[in-house]
Amino acid sequence: MPPLTAVERFFERLFERPSARLFRARLQPIQLQRRIERAMEGERLTTSDRTLVPNRFIVHLHPADLADFGEMTGTLASELADGALSFARAHHYTVVDRPRVDLLADPAVDRTDARVEARFAEPIVGRPGHGPVAPAPDASGEPGDIDRTVTRAYAIPRPSAPRAVLRVTDPGGGTRKVVIEQGSLTIGRATDNDVVALDGRVSRHHGRITGRRGTLVYTDLGSTNGSRVNGISVAEVVLGAGDRLEVGDTALIVEVAGAPD
Length: 261
Description:
Blueprint: H1 3-23, H2 29-42, E1 45-46, E2 51-52, E3 56-61, H3 63-68, H4 73-90, E4 100-105, E5 114-119, H5 146-153, E6 163-169, E7 175-180, E8 185-188, E9 195-196, E10 207-212, E11 215-220, E12 227-229, E13 232-234, E14 236-239, E15 244-247, E16 250-258
Parallel strand pairs: 3-4, 8-9
Antiparallel strand pairs: 1-2, 3-5, 6-7, 6-16, 8-10, 10-11, 11-14, 12-13, 12-15, 15-16
């Protein structure tokens, strides 16, 4: 853990937890969101051209705090994951897959406190959505070691990239659909691109969409006017269903068509 992150965590624990116990404050979702953001910042890896951040977060909560969220637990985990993605995009960080958040009941965590594990992980096959994770029982029938359970959960095969469709809207209002198979797809004004943009604000070779580790990754190729996803400027980002990619005045909406053949 970087020194600055350790100092922030020390003061956070010093002030937040005693006051919460004194006034019997209930743990709020925004507190969990801030913990996830700090964990993402604390584990980021900077290379020569980008900053990679974790995409899997295990939030350890006291069982009573987890129970307080009741039926909204699954929704809360999904919202926290969306918040993590927005945070990464706002800071121009690169993630290898859409973030996933799991909420874990952990008696070792103090009431109204939370501990977040952040890690880099491949996309999970067969585990749609987000939700709480329970420790697996060991041979005695009691809950087993938490770390062993989490490690086993992520020991998965590497998936292929999904097959998807782009709905392209040109500046003049015309629309067309382009299928993204498992290879890469280039976007630009030049005629040698897979998607030829009829747009003077688009560079000759503007960007590329590549299937990578079970995800669709968009990379801006150093374009003059840049690229935006859902209104946020990006250099590289993982795309998902419903995302709106804008290059110049051309919009490309991602529509997932299904698994690869």
